[in-house]
Amino acid sequence: MATQTLKSSPTLKPATATATRPARATSARSRPGPGSLARAADTTLGRAVIQLLAVAAFFLAWEVAVRAGWLTEFLVGAPSGIGRVFLASLLDGSLPVDTWYTVIEAIIGFLIGTLLGSVAGLGLWYSAFVARLVEPFIVAINSVPKIALAPIVILWFGTGFVSKVALAVSLTALVALIAAYQAARDADPDLQALLASMGASKNRIFKSVIVPSTLPAIIGMFRINIGFALVGAVVGEFISSQRGLGHLIYAASSLYDLNTVWVGLFVLMFVGFLLYHVIDFAERRILPWRQVTTAGQVQV
Amino acid sequence: MTASSVQLRLDSIRKSFPGKGGSVPVLDGLSFDIFERDFVSIIGPSGCGKTTVFNVIAGLLEPDSGTMTFRGEVVSGLQGRVGYMMQKDLLFPWRTVLQNVMLGLEMKGVDRAQALDTAREYLSTFGLSGFENAYPKMLSGGMRQRTALIRTLIMDPDILLLDEPFSALDYQTRLYLEGVLLDAVETFHKTVVLVTHDIDEAVALSKRVVVLGNRPTTVKSVHEIGLDARSPIGARSDPRFSDYFQTLCGELEIQTRQRAA
Fold this sequence. Notes:
The structure holds 2 protein chains of 2 kinds. Chain A is 75% helix and 0% strand. By secondary structure, chain A is mostly helical. Chain A has 2 domains: 38-71; 77-290, MetI-like (MetI-like fold, Orthogonal Bundle). In chain A, α7 (94-123) runs antiparallel to α12 (202-239), α7 packs across α13 and α9 crosses α10. The two termini of chain A are 31 Å apart. Residues 1-29 of chain A have low confidence and may be disordered. By secondary structure, chain B is of the alpha/beta class. Chain B has 8 helices and 10 strands. Chain B has helices at residues 50-58, 97-108, 112-125, 141-154, 171-188, 199-205, 232-237, 241-260; strands spanning 6-19, 22-35, 39-43, 65-70, 73-75, 82-86, 159-163, 191-195, 208-212, 219-224. Chain B has a 6-stranded mixed beta sheet, with helices on both faces. Chain B has a 4-stranded antiparallel beta sheet with strand order 2-1-4-5, covered by helices on one side. In chain B, a hairpin with a 2-residue loop joins β4 (65-70) and β5 (73-75). In chain B, α2 crosses α3 (112-125). The longest helix of chain B has 20 residues, at 241-260. Chain B is globular and about 50 Å long. The mean pLDDT of chain B is 86. Chain A binds chain B through residues 1, 3-7, 188, 190-191, 193-200, 204, 208-209, 212-213, 215, 287-289, 292-293, and chain B through 55, 58-60, 79-80, 82, 84, 86, 88, 90, 92-96, 103-104, 107-108, 127, 135, 137-140, 142-143, 146, 155, 161, 170, 172-173, 176.
């Protein structure tokens, strides 16, 4: 039974572990030398401090460069001005409203596009014939830069909310379809054969093998698609709208109001960052079996 | 052996696959019998179609011609009647050990509470209590294969189909699992068909060994293995072990020379 125990942890035999495997994290950590500072700072708090310092240094250098006259505020803006615009638009309520519009457009577009695409892509697993039949059409449609559709989408769906959602859908649906179909095709044929040998139906194999084994790829695609959905919403707002961060940026840049442009960009960056982490969180909840510890692995 | 004790009969099974220059025949009229509670190993030169035989019996491939008779009844395949085990453990990575073991019971539509009880009972019999909620990734190769064996046995199949199930394991783990398999087969009264390239394993475990010829394959010979010891180590220390081993090696070697000529 001794051979049946869990993979031995590095702490099991510290003496031999240090002698034969100096690369193991435990032995390396206790050894002083070059890189020990990086190791000491490599905690959540340590990294956060360094990251915040880097951001602060960047804005400080920017501000100093503008004040010293090395950069023109008219062309690049200045952190102090950006702060002022940010506070003012936050307090008068216009920034939260613009952000809300863009975020809702992107999220609804993301949900519709990703859902439609994933379902269609997984559905293609059912029939290799249909999949082969539609493949050239998918490739052809996918090769069109979807942003080029924006003018037509505005014509069809108007200048309001719906056209932005439609644009986000057009950007995300095919990405989802291709990712889901590819993942379904890559699902382990031996697992499918195993279920077939148990007398499982095709629907059963779909439910028990195809869906769970494609989930990691599909959730991975969510990260890409949330970005695309934001692109769709913002570009739609660029072309024609009364509201949203895209509108804010576009209107401000035509007035050479660089500080407002930066406010819009930074808020967009923050929104994208936040949504990315929401997906990260969801992934950890949905795929617990992927989160298995890597403690026993050699650190390279 | 009387005819009534034949559990599965393969009669002139032919199967070819489409290749570059037309169809390539793989099985060329394959016939052999498997008895009730038999332990048959199928060995043969590599690429001779051992796995094709395996897939035909499992019902995953349909033969071009020939018949399979299961307990006197002509069948097209044994879906739902066989337990299937390969070199890859084929555990579902997104299922815990317990959920993996319950897979076959779910397919059969067994009541969930009852399936849970049965699964826990099997896990404890095979020394895997405490690992119910572990994911396969966290287990050693031997434990994973043991889980796969439990998953196969728990469905109570008529025939266990094993395709080199232990060949990826180290020798100690392998001996141990061979023992577990023999015990389980004894306890649960199972018939086993073991496809292997390992003559040593075939002799140590089997009651009979079916030797296949080169592709297109027919049965070259069938050997009864008369070792009394019912443990993999005991069988290997039997003085007749090496006779069987050499006889079977000889059969495969001759074929290798023929192919080279």
